[in-house]
Design goal:
Arc Repressor Mutant, subunit A, 4-stranded antiparallel β-sheet, alpha+beta, 9 helices, 2 domains
Amino acid sequence: MRKISEFKSSNLVFNHIIYDKESERHFAMHSHSLMEFIYITKGEVSYTVEDKKFTARQGELLVIKPYAYHYFTIKNQQDYEKIGVLCNCEDLEIEYTMNEPLMLIQCQNGKLHDIFNKIDFYYHNCPQPIFKVLLKDLAKEILINIKFFSSQYVISMRTESIHPLIERAINYINENLFNFNTVKELANHLSVSESHLKVLFTSQLKVTPKNYITEKKMLFARSMISNGSTPTQTAFYCGYSNYATFYRLYLRFFNVNPMTDYKNNNL
């Protein structure tokens, strides 16, 4: 992996990365509390986002919903290069809600293509404080194009098969995230053994069902805290009757305890 450029702030991230064909071809399942835009400038990859699996190619833009679990696998013997932007839509002052966990947009040589190239250009030619302002403006322009001018782009979805049990599991988790705490409850609902569910989940999504559920809860919890909910209110809402358990998990995932995070975000 080679990073061409990278910028990070609390709710705004930009990176330009090349994954070479000789490197590890499978990448860890993960999720973000921010909306993610991934513009593919080279290569072909298989992306799994929640219960959807599809192929994405050069000149296509992936839009991934906040909190959606995803990972990719490089296809063919070719480098994979992408320009990525992560942002909080509320910070951009644009209301935008995705019904599905992802969109795939064909935008090679169009306005969206030009926006990503501009971001890369400004990164290499502007002082960082100025770049941060430009990045926010250009992230807003990306979102405006997707929200108001999506009919101008060809939206393509080359879906691939995913095990129906995993699809059912993800749907149940998303609908009942705070109403259950154990993988056993999920397995019972699906009428399968815990061991079978773990094997299938890990092979399909590269993450155990326990870690999948916990990380989704933690990301949601951090979003609540950043929006003003106290740690104790958040722990209770997310289904943790034992605050010590919530505290320990939060610290493990974010390397900061929930009260410190609350104070930093609500001064």
